[in-house]
Amino acid sequence: MIRKISIAAVLTATLALSGCGYNDFQKLDESVKASWSEVLNQYQRRSDLIPNIVATVKGEAGFEQETLTKVIEARSKATSIQATPELINNPEAFKKFQAAQGELSGALSRLMVVSEQYPNLKANAGFQDLRVQLEGTENRVTVARNRYIKEVAGYNVLTRSFPTNLTAMMFSYAVKPSFTVANEAQISAPPQVNFDKPVAK
After folding, report:
1. Residue 33 included in any domain
2. Whole-model pTM above 0.85?
3. Most Cβ neighbours (<10 Å): which of 82, 154, 161, 199?
4. How far apart are CA 19 and CA 37, in angstroms?
């Protein structure tokens, strides 16, 4: 008799948890983690390209040192933040990480614009290849970031909706931070690295 009651209790608890979104939380949490890992992979790919870009640009006589220094400093700042999977559960740390990556994007964009003023760099096949790789990486960053935003939105809706918000409170599932920018259009627009347009003097 006791065994039957125990089995019934387990079955009831299982049905209650699945009905309150417990399994959905598990699935969406894993999706958020996977999409976040892809964001980190693409940021790492970009970070790995920068030393080669910097080395190539340094070889150009008279290149604007301030611009180069800002890229080096921004990369250093971005890589100093330990980008772990747990970062997405810490809104304050996430905000700092996002700001550092945004600063690096801006510095790289400026470097590429300034580079257009140097004919030797425009003619340098190695630099052109790095430019194409950077452009491709920025596109991958955008795709990965947009996927993360979508996954977080789904997770956060589940966290805030009734009755799954009760499950969220019971198991401490908090709302996860998402990427935000002052201009939302920037989310889908990678930095411009086109060498074909002349720079306005």
Report:
1. yes
2. no
3. 154
4. 29
